[in-house]
């Protein structure tokens, strides 16, 4: 199959106006756009990098999340990928949103999402952003310090606050514990301080770190939130919201880990917050929804070969997308990404140690610190990186004059009709 009636009026770089997605003849065929676009661009002689974003797959991720965690309401973490069509689809599916700044609040509210479906989940906010939340009716705000309480008391006294706690034990690819979260020992004091300021604390939250490796971390964190609920009630707060944060893995290969997390969460919820106690449970998944939904194709724009002592060849490939574009997150990932080479070889090619660089003049602009094993390729060849939907385009810059990557969003007829009938 191939897309019918492609409407590819891509918006200006950085524009928040949603460009029209490509409408596919049937669901599940978005990946076929990758070779098709490669062919088209190669014929045109314009081998710019691009990303395909499969909006049907995004719907699938949402369904998988709800199936595994039926009592948890997802508030999608906008920072993970803030493409307008991603937000539009999720808004139509009825998710809530976790926003980190005024800009994200504006983007989500601009879609017509009710302020009650938003949590402003950055524990350290600028005063002007707090004021904007107050003006816009966004009431759920996280905090983890007394200083934040003082700002909220002055600028948003009607807020419904959620106390973000530190995690005791967790292994994750991107830990967040140093920067955010109040230690359990400090929570009693913070809850009393909120009470003294006349502020309402309604719940507790945590983040086990993005791409969490240890499902049991949720059990400990939920148990700790239970303690915070008890402390809050003693201080006179009406505690009714448990926020599990993010941390859920996003690749297809991490299915078993996600299922284990869901088992741990469902059991801990039944133990500490059983049904009938009136506690609403939400989460802020980002990576889980987005990582596997995008595929990126890049082109080799330059190449160098070097001879090592012993006569071994090493290669340097220079790609037209890199650290300052959509691949900023790669350097912080525990395992180097190995792209798929789009090239036919007469027989199984031997692999060589290769360094992958981005296109800018900065030496830091590379895709991994270690070499990766790839076949001998040439200038003009294409490489494909799957699983590039999380923290990629949303972290891009135009450093050195390289534009933000073009993203082709695609959806099938079912999703299109859902969006047409969505309120
Ligand atoms: N919630 C908060 C407060 C975060 O800071 C983040 C990520 O940094 C997320 C949710 C999303 O996390 P993940 O992508 O691991 O689901």
UniProtKB/TrEMBL annotation:
Keywords: Polyamine biosynthesis, Pyridoxal phosphate. The active site is at 361 (proton donor). The modification N6-(pyridoxal phosphate)lysine is found at residue 79. Residues 57-290 form the Orn/DAP/Arg decarboxylase 2 N-terminal domain. GO terms for molecular function: carboxy-lyase activity. InterPro entries: Ala_racemase/Decarboxylase_C (IPR009006), De-COase2_CS (IPR022657), De-COase2_N (IPR022644), De-COase2_pyr-phos_BS (IPR022653), Orn/DAP/Arg_de-COase (IPR000183), Orn_de-COase (IPR002433), PLP-binding_barrel (IPR029066). GO terms for biological process: putrescine biosynthetic process from arginine, via ornithine. Its cofactor is pyridoxal 5'-phosphate. One of its GO terms (cellular component) is cytoplasm. It comes from the Eukaryota. Pfam families: Orn_Arg_deC_N. This is Antizyme inhibitor 2.
């Amino acid at each position: 199959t191939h897309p019918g009636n492609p409407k590819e009026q891509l918006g200006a770089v950085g524009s928040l106006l949603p460009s029209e997605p490509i409408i596919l003849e049937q669901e599940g065929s978005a990946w076929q756009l990758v070779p098709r676009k490669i062919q088209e661009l190669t014929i045109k002689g314009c081998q710019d990098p691009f990303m395909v974003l499969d909006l049907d797959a995004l719907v699938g991720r949402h369904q998988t999340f709800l199936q595994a965690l039926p009592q948890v309401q997802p508030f999608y973490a906008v920072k993970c990928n803030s493409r307008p069509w991603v937000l539009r689809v999720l808004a139509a599916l009825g998710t809530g949103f976790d926003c980190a700044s005024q800009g994200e609040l504006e983007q989500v509210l601009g879609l017509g999402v009710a302020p009650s479906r938003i949590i402003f989940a950055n524990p350290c906010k600028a005063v002007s952003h707090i004021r904007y939340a107050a003006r816009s009716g966004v009431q759920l705000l996280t905090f983890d310090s007394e200083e934040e309480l003082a700002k909220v008391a002055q600028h948003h006294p009607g807020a419904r606050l959620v106390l973000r706690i530190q995690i005791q034990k967790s292994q994750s690819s991107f830990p967040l514990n140093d920067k955010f979260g109040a230690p359990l020992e400090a929570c009693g004091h913070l809850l009393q301080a909120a009470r003294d300021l006349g502020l309402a604390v309604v719940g507790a939250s945590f983040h086990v770190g993005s791409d969490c490796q240890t499902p049991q971390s949720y059990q400990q964190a939920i148990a700790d939130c239970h303690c915070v609920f008890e402390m809050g009630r003693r201080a006179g707060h009406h505690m009714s919201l448990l926020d599990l944060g993010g941390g859920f893995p996003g690749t297809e290969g991490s299915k078993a880990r996600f299922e284990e997390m869901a088992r741990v969460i469902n059991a801990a919820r039944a133990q500490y917050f059983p049904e009938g106690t009136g506690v609403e449970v939400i989460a802020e998944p980002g990576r889980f929804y987005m990582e596997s939904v995008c595929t990126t194709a890049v082109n080799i724009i330059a190449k160098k070969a070097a001879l090592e002592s012993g006569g071994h060849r090493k290669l340097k490939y220079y790609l037209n997308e890199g650290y300052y574009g959509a691949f900023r997150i790669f350097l912080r990932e525990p395992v180097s990404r190995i792209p798929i080479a789009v090239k036919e070889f007469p027989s199984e090619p031997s692999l060589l140690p290769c360094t992958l660089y981005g296109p800018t003049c900065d030496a830091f602009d590379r895709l991994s610190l270690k070499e990766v094993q790839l076949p001998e390729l040439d200038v003009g060849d294409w490489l494909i990186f799957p699983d590039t939907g999380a923290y990629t385009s949303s972290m891009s810059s135009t450093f050195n004059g390289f534009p933000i990557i073009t993203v082709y969003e695609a959806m099938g007829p079912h999703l299109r009709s859902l969006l047409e009938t969505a309120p």
